[in-house]
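Case study: GntR family transcriptional regulator / MocR family aminotransferase.
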Amino acid sequence: MFKHSQLESVKAALMHPDYEKYPLYLRIQRALRQLILDGALPANTPLPASRALAQSLNVSRDTVENAYSLLHAEGYIERQVGSGSFVAEVPQLRKTKRKVSSQSTKQLTIQLSKRGQSMLNNDGVREALTPQPFAPGIPETRLFPLALWARLERQVIRDYQFKALQHSDPQGTKELRSAIANYANLERGAHATPERILILTSSQQALALCALNLLDAGSHIFTENPMYQGARKAFEAAGLIPVPIPVDQHGIRVDLLKQHATPAKAVSLTPSHQYPSGATLSLERRLELIEWAEQNQAWIIEDDYDSEFHYAGKPTTCVQGLDPYQRTIYIGTFTKSLFPSVRIGYMILPAQLVAPMTTARTLQDGHTATMPQLTLARFMENGHFGAYIRQMRQLYAKRLIILEKLVRSHLKDFLEPIPPLGGMQMPCVLTCELDEKLIITQAKQQDIALTSLSSLYITTPQKTGFLLGFAAYTDREMELAILKLRKIFIANTG
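Here is what the predicted structure looks like once written out:
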């Protein structure tokens, strides 16, 4: 018979927060199913008549009938005309069940692959959902021309109709690849054609593709030291071993790279604005690096993540545009220049890498969403992208000046700012004996996001301090955050 405790379990399910999003008949169905799975309702147990259960639960009879019908369709109960409903014989339910610990805090142990465990250990790459001063690499989105973007999107829907809802070419739409080629050739001095461009969701995906397709696990790759954590984590997740090469005011030390005892078939760098120092790789070193790559049949992975924002003169021609040997892979992204949720990045590839990289990309996520690609293509073709970048470049340059003044005014006893020639963040070196981690923890409690400089070094840190992003924050927001930081610094220097 259907016991009182079983009826109470069904009643409890109607009120359970996990079930509240479901209609009543599904709540009843799931409660009964769980009783059957737990063995609380053994095979051949008769269930109450739908009218009786409906009255007990204060619901309509149709609601109970719908629950019973679903349980019958799933094979959990049998229904016989004139005899009622019974719990069905389900062979799998007769198997001996393992005892599960009643301790809710105890979790089952899982066995990950070495690669999976490595990715878990390095904690992935996480961006702030809501920008907090001074999280780096985040653009200002409150000034983006949303109405214009929406109008262009409507044009795309009107012109492409249902084609805009279909799969994209894994390499990307020809419209966007053409727009990017024109832009990169004009603004970055690249040698790009639509056929050599691969559209992706992010520069992080591009780095992962390079790591997985150019080098085998256990291989070495030259990297800047300090370096962007996202690149380091992508390489380590693929089983590569980063070999750190020091950076000075002119970028990565190519002379030390060439002399290094460890051979490597690739180098990853951020030549426009070295992350995090902001240094620009000199033309001499760019040419020297290109010759090294050709002589050693190595690859240059050029991450040009925020080159649009250069504040002193015209940015140097990208390495890819100087490379006559096609040994350079150029990576660009629109998540920094436009807005993070656009989720569009790209690579300009040597001709021989287009097919293998595109094929590898199909195994990851297939393609990039069609409609944003077509909308972005029109945004670029109509001149809106260039106009917006010019507007943001002026704004960010002013914000950099403001941030430097704030640091020198309020934190001069603790930090020395090192204003870069471009980019979206400014490194500040600690000039006192304070613990980075302690400051970061206390700043987080004040809704301030700091990135430690020491965490960006592969070897023993040469500098300690913080990387302060400024692009996404108004003058007042930065001032208030700096004043909070001042109190934190003072409180820790007594």
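For the exam, be able to explain this: The CA atoms of residues 308 and 389 lie 7 Å apart.
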